[in-house]
Amino acid sequence: MSGREREPRDDGHPTNGAPAPDEARHGRGPSRGALIAKLEDLDRELEEARAAADEQLRTAQRATADLANYRRRVEEDRGASMGFANALLIGKLLAVLDDFDRALDHVPPDAHEGWLDGIRLVERKLRSLLEAEGVTQIEAAGQPFDPNLHEAVVHEETTEFPDNQVIGELQRGYRLHDRVLRPSLVRVANNPKEH
Q1: Fold classification of 136-195 (topology level)
Q2: Where are the domains positioned within the chain?
Q3: Looking at the DSSP assignment, which residues form a beta bridge with residue 180?
Q4: Model confidence at 19: pLDDT above 90
Q5: Which pLDDT score is estimated for 109?
Q6: Distance separating alpha carbons of residues 136 and 185, to the nearest angstrom
Q7: DSSP letter string over 51-102?
């Protein structure tokens, strides 16, 4: 290149090889305007990188929360499935307990006492096993009728009991923890004086 040809400057303006006025004055690199433009570009790139990083962080946080929620739902579903399976099995065992109750309510007078003690022992073991699993009997007789706990099989007209009081239990009801497994089948007073 001859001395007459011009080389482009950093800011895009042709030069004759002599430093730009700012460069000549300070004896340094690019002009102040070029540095400001470069700084603005870098600031813009930094903001874009921060925005992208923030979005990736939010995406990661959402994914982490979604995973935690999924795990919680799976555990709840597993617990509900096990509870449902337990409830089905316990419901079947309640029928056996009902048979024991009926048998013990109608013991023949000539029954051998040792045999009867054995039957009572088996019934107590079954009841204890169910109680250990969270099964409790629903109180019925003498209680106000509650359709959530009791199923009225018979309404008896009587003045001896308050209206809508359970006056007899035909079949015991049970709960598994707070959930009703089977409502009590009951007789309910229908007091005409209170109508």
Answers
A1: Nucleotide Exchange Factor Grpe; Chain A, domain 2 (2.30.22)
A2: 136-195
A3: 175
A4: no
A5: 86
A6: 16
A7: HHHHHHHHHHHHHHHHHHHHHHHHHHHHHHHHHHHHHHHHHHHHHHHHHHHH
How many beta carbons lie within 10 A of that of residue 94, not counting itself? 19
- CA torsion sign for 133, 134, 140, 145 is negative
Q: Which residue has the tokens 């045999």?
A: 115
pLDDT digits (tens, 9 = 90+) for 31-65: 888 999 999 999 999 999 999 999 999 999 999 99
Q: What six digits make up the tokens of 117? A: 């003690």
Q: For residue 103, is pLDDT > 70?
A: yes
Q: What distance in Å separates the CA atoms of residue 66 and residue 64, rounded to the nearest whole number?
A: 5
CB atoms within 10 A of CB 151: 15
> Is 10's pLDDT higher than 80?
no
Residue 174, C-beta contacts closer than 8 angstroms, at least 6 positions apart: 90, 94, 130, 135, 136, 137, 138, 180, 181, 182
Which residues lie closer than 8 Å to 169 by C-beta, 6 or more apart? 140, 141, 184, 185, 186, 187
Reported confidence tier of residue 161, pLDDT bands at 50, 70, 90: confident
